[in-house]
Amino acid sequence: MAPNNQPESQIPAPILGPQKTLPGVDVTTWVETCTGPKRAGDLMVGDRIFTPNNGAQPLLWVGRFERLSWGYDAPLEVEAEALGVHGVVSVSRDQPIMLTSNLAKSMFGEAEVLIRAQHLVGTLARFREDGNSAEFILLLCGQQQVFCANNLPVATFKPCRHSLALLDDQQQEDILDVLPNRDGLTGFGYGPTARVVMRDQESRAILKDVFFKEKRPRDARALSRLVG
Predict the structure, then answer these.
(1) DSSP summary character for residue 12
(2) DSSP code of residue 228
(3) What is the pLDDT along the chain (228 residues), one digit of tens a residue?
């Protein structure tokens, strides 16, 4: 059934495979800044967000994009305290989220790694499909940073040829103006990711490790799906 009684012809079918998308946090998300928490939608260029590793970091660019809350375009809601002491967090499915895992340390030499939010679907997160318009915020710093979104550690936007192609012409120009260079083949001179980014199979292994470490009975069925 179409959400909100909209005609079926106006509702896109659920996405069944990988589609082009952008990382982003919901416009209502609280972000820690040097002057206290602010809604993501109220942040402006020059605001300084708090990062656990590099202290206060100024925002060089703030972007936004909208999607229909249906299928894989819908906001992905990470349940409260799913990955520590944090509130419910709404993000796009491509938003990098930081996890801490002993397995990650043994595999990559670093306990803290980034996984795409979509890997939490069916276990610690669900799509909020209500047919309404959802607005997401992109935050760009001088290099990719980890910041707190409703107290959940997530990563800022990291521009690349793929992600820039999903933005409109003006947004692309605004970003290129603040990057070290305009050569997409060399990553625009932007630098590395804030943490090692997990591929699909690695993400599943890390999530299983997190479940075992926390030993949460309420997640037994979710864990069995991961192991299976």
Answers:
(1) P
(2) -
(3) 444 444 333 333 333 334 568 999 999 999 999 999 999 999 999 999 999 989 999 999 999 999 888 888 889 999 998 888 999 999 999 999 999 988 999 888 999 999 999 988 888 888 888 888 899 999 999 999 999 999 999 999 999 888 898 999 999 999 999 998 888 877 888 989 999 999 888 888 888 887 766 545 444 445 444 444
Could you tell me if 34 and 103 are in contact, meaning their C-beta atoms sit under 8 angstroms apart?
A: no
Contact partners, residue 228, CB within 8 Å, separation at least 6: none
pTM of the full structure: 0.82
Could you write out the three-class secondary structure of 179-194?
A: CCCCCHHHHHHCCCCC
Cβ atoms within 10 Å, residue 101: 23
How many other C-beta atoms lie within 10 A of the C-beta of residue 194? 25
Apex 116 CA angle, 209 and 4, nearest 5: 120
